[in-house]
Q: What sequence folds into this?
């Protein structure tokens, strides 16, 4: 059994070169020396995730641009990808005379008790190794301001929030209607574009842009270059760990999808002798072959009060007396309102009004106060653009006019990070061009608004606030529409 350990507990600021990190660096130097068409080379590995190279220029037989995003395959595909990578690194370390039990560490940036851990560990920030050789864990194409990641700056606390994702009660949405759940929406093979699952959104997407930066876009900020930054693999090791962490939440019970369409899906990474072909079913228990790994810790840090008021938090069924919504029960969300025009996501806050109607379909249920939905979802649909002006946006519901959003954290629906927006705005063979869609379960927010007397069943106001703004203005990101769903 291999143990994946917390990188911040390896080495120290004074002496960052723990053997696990040192062997990782040495292996990367070896991988970088291999030709790109070699399936165990650094550049081949990164291209499996994404590449700017035209398909017609690809070496024969490669399967590149494969990463699964905006999909319920996001988590299992990246797990298989990391397994392929980890085996290659371990084999390389053994060939270099190192230990045979090396496992990929993880970067746990979300513990509020350890704000230091929001910085990159020092071994990833030093341009040189102690020997004076260039350090392969260092890359210069990382955020240099706001946050100054390259110089030891910390990710923003908002970027690493895990409360909303962990609070999700189901892996995928209640229907095929673009409501994504914890792990992503029900899709076929999907490289880019469409609804984004909660974990893929935050912290995953925020951390990508937080590390890579957005003016200019560093390696971590694009699908096509992300895996060229050695921290990518530790970030995904943590995302994979958070999947495990989510599953052990028991109240209510969290479960992986049971559908064969998910469990029997099969993915191949690499080609030739090192290739792996695995079904989702085969990677659900990490302690079994062929994976054979555990995480040293899958507990979720206690969330500081006020750090997150998860929109759905303790609320299962706020409007009716019926019990929790089970996974087998098909909730069919019905759209009850939508904005009329595209909504700019700019350097300034944007506000949009949505007229809301009474549902007419299954969302109409008899409760104590008449027809009330059991779940309320806010959707920010088809977010597209070619140039970013902010790394992410905070989304608020019914923020009073001219109010300081910081005073109304309990009205925050969630975040819209920009990772993947550029990819999803291109239309070519791999990309649909229709942008990303974000869905938020705002049942709890709506309940609080009702209690505060600030809920108007006929009108909704949604505010988008850029989390940080770049020095250069410009940018052309917008959402196709903002809509409200009842289920
Ligand atoms: Cu396939 Cu974090 O990206």
A:
């Amino acid at each position: 059994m291999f143990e994946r350990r917390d990188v911040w507990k390896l080495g120290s600021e004074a002496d960052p070169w723990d053997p696990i990190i040192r062997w990782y660096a040495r292996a990367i130097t070896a991988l970088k020396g291999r030709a790109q068409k070699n399936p165990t080379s650094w550049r081949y590995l990164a291209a499996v995730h994404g590449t700017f190279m035209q398909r017609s220029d690809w070496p024969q037989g490669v399967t590149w641009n494969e990463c699964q995003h905006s999909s319920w395959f996001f988590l299992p595909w990246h797990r298989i990808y990391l397994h392929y990578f980890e085996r290659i690194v371990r084999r390389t370390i053994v060939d270099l005379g190192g230990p045979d039990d090396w496992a990929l560490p993880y970067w746990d940036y979300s513990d509020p008790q350890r704000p230091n851990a929001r910085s990159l560990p020092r071994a990833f920030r030093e341009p040189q190794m102690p020997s004076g050789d260039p350090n392969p864990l260092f890359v210069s194409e990382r955020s240099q301001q706001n946050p100054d990641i390259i110089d030891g700056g910390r990710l923003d606390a908002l970027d690493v929030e895990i409360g909303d994702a962990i609070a999700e009660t189901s892996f995928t949405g209640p229907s095929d209607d673009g409501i994504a759940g914890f792990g992503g929406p029900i899709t076929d093979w999907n490289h880019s574009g469409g609804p984004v699952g909660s974990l893929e959104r935050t912290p995953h997407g925020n951390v990508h842009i937080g590390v890579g930066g957005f003016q200019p876009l560093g390696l971590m900020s694009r699908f096509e270059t992300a895996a060229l930054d050695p921290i990518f693999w530790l970030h995904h090791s943590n995302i994979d760990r958070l999947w495990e962490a989510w599953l052990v939440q028991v109240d209510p019970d969290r479960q992986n999808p049971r559908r064969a369409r998910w469990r029997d899906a099969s993915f191949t990474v690499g080609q030739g002798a090192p290739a792996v072909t695995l079904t989702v079913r085969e990677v659900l228990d990490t302690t079994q072959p062929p994976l054979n790994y555990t995480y040293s810790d899958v507990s979720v840090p206690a969330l500081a009060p006020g750090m997150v008021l998860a929109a759905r938090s303790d609320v299962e069924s706020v409007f009716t007396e019926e019990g929790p919504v089970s996974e087998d029960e098909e909730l069919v969300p019905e759209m009850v309102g939508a904005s009329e025009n595209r909504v700019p996501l700019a350097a300034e806050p944007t506000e949009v009004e949505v007229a809301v109607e009474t549902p007419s379909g299954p969302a109409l249920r008899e409760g104590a106060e008449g027809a009330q939905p059991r779940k309320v979802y806010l959707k920010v649909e088809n977010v597209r653009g070619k140039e970013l002006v902010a790394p992410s946006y905070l989304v608020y519901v019914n923020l009073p006019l001219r109010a300081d959003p910081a005073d109304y954290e309990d009205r925050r629906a969630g975040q819209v990070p920009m990772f993947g927006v550029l990819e999803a705005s291109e239309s070519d063979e791999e990309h649909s061009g229709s942008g990303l869609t974000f869905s938020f379960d705002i049942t709890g927010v709506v309940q609080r608004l009702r209690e505060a007397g600030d809920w108007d069943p006929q009108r909704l106001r949604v505010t988008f606030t850029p989390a940080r703004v770049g020095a250069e203005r410009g940018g052309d990101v917008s959402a196709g529409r903002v809509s409200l769903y009842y289920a």
User: Anything to note?
Assistant: Confidence is low (pLDDT under 50) at residues 304-328.
